[in-house]
Design goal:
Number of helices: 5
Radius of gyration: 25 Å
Helix content: over 70%
Distance between the termini: 58 Å
Number of strands: 2
Largest sheet: 2 strands, antiparallel
Length: about 140
């Protein structure tokens, strides 16, 4: 059963994809309309052309953050102790706090691991893991 919300969402998604694909073409046409370099259409056209790289990168950033948040939620939901310790805090806030903590601790953990178990070769940024230290 197709609801009106489904139709609106489909039109919105396909419309935003179509606009993103043709945004630079539309901006270029707005720039070409006038000979004057400071007209409204030229300003909007330049904005559209310059904004396209940022808009193209947004789904990657948002998708990565969403993927990380979902993976943390799956991890945290298996650690019931966190919800017992903080019973009055909403679940999404607990998930977000753990997500931030893991996000900040991961580079620190990686740096410590590299300094403890790796050795630098010939002053290059190539690291060889000392497997004997891990056993």
């Amino acid at each position: 059963m197709v609801t009106s919300a489904t139709r609106i969402a489909t039109i919105g998604v396909y419309g935003s994809v179509a606009f993103t694909i043709r945004m630079d073409d539309f901006g270029y046409r707005l720039i070409r309309i006038n000979d004057c370099s400071n007209s409204f259409s030229v300003t909007i056209g330049k904005f559209l052309v310059n904004a396209l790289p940022v808009i193209i990168k947004l789904p990657f950033v948002i998708g990565t953050l969403a993927l990380l948040l979902v993976s943390i939620v799956i991890f945290v939901r298996n650690v019931v102790l966190l919800y017992d310790v903080l019973p009055n805090v909403p679940d999404i806030l607990v998930d977000f706090i753990v997500w931030l903590l893991i996000g900040f601790l991961t580079p620190i953990r990686s740096t410590i691991f590299r300094k403890l178990f790796a050795r630098k070769i010939a002053n290059k940024s190539i690291y060889i893991i000392n497997t004997k230290a891990l056993v």
